[in-house]
Fold this sequence. Notes:
The structure holds two protein chains of two kinds.
Chain A: E1 4-10, E2 13-19, H1 25-33, E3 51-54, E4 57-60, E5 73-75, H2 88-95, H3 105-118, H4 124-130, H5 142-159
Parallel strand pairs in A: 1-5
Antiparallel strand pairs in A: 1-2, 3-4, 3-5
Helix pairs in contact in A: 2-5
Chain B: E1 3-7, H1 10-15, E2 21-23, H2 30-35, E3 43-47, E4 55-58, E5 61-65, H3 70-75, H4 83-87, H5 92-97, H6 100-105, H7 112-119, E6 123-126, E7 131-133, H8 134-140, E8 148-154, E9 161-167, E10 175-182, E11 185-186, E12 189-190, E13 194-198, E14 205-206, H9 208-214, H10 225-229, H11 245-261
Parallel strand pairs in B: 1-3, 2-3
Antiparallel strand pairs in B: 4-5, 5-8, 6-7, 6-8, 9-10, 10-13, 11-12, 13-14
Amino acid sequence: MSKSPVSFELNGSETSLFVEGGQNLLDALRRGVGDLTPKFGCNQGTCGACTVLIDGQPFLSCLVLAVNAEGRSIETAAGLSDGPSLHPLQQAFIDGFAAQCGYCTPGMLLAAKTLLDRNPNPAREEIAEAISGNLCRCTGYAPIIDAILSAAEIVRRSNRP
Amino acid sequence: MVEVLAFESIAQAAAALRDRTVYLGGGTLVMRAVNFGDSSIERIVLANDPSVKAIRTEGNRVVLGSGATMADVLASKETAFLASVARGIGGPAVRSMATVGGNLFAQHPYGDFAAAILALDAKLSLTDGSEIDMGSFLARRGSLRSLVARIQFERPASGEFHFRKMSRVKPKGVSVISIAALIPNSAGRVSNARIAYCGMGETPVRASAAEAALEGRTLDPQGIAAAVSAASAGLAPPDDAIASSWYRKEVAPVLLRRLLLGEAD
């Protein structure tokens, strides 16, 4: 059985590769493209470590059939920074010690980005809901929520005329 | 290697179903099996059919395309009354993917949306042109040779539809049980209530004894007492890692009372 070609935009760059029939997008990104920021966690859609944005919406890349990414726009945590300038969420996670082992961090960042893109002034409960599909076994979540609140403030300030 | 066949319509995808072939909707069920090397899956069929994602109304009926996701349900004003059900399923990423049609096939303890569809007395339109009610579908869902194209039901009157979910993890977790209920009333008395559980059986099930006990009663502590007492009657919820059968039977009357009286969780 032959492989199939698939092309999509990855963090703003056109990307093409060949994928196997049942291959998931997480595997295609990690092994096919070499973007290691989406993490392999549970492989069953429970942990959120593989979260990517597809056309601006959060998806679990382990449950996306790679061929279904054809023509879509995909964002991973690798695309968050602008060269050496970190995204406010990344900086807030560093400043607030919101990453311990760091395995959940790329998924957390993208779940949080989805929220802040839609609502730059979220309540604590809204943040808890936004990251409710992303498991963290280290932090107890409080530093992550605090970091997202801090990032939201920075985003609001930078959006002011 | 798994073979993937993509079709223009869901009817064409259904026609391609045969042994060792599965239909991929949102992916949350099928890809899980594929990732874990389910050797019974040799072929995946897909439909790039925008009509299966549509949510619309026809007169007083709501028509959900089986490919509509939980995020689509949340975004549509036609299904605002189902927002609490859709919001209770997974985190935002799961809701971007999980479809209404997929939830109808979700194995215990999943299937909160399917319980809502059962409570709403929905009819399912299959790709072979037939129509089947939700109760009959649940009895046959493992042996169907067609796909579900659309789900249709009468829009409930304002305040008639209720949903409660109890999970062990906040803010979100798998249901210990959930209850969806359509509670019409006539002159202040309940008439033809439909109460459906997720988690109280191998598939979503009706709470027939509670429904009967509610007929003609008022929604106050005295009026609902018999229904609450009958909440678990005749049901045999499964034991699993989420909860024991005993615990589910204990939770059912508590959650049903909260739902019927509008009490806080």
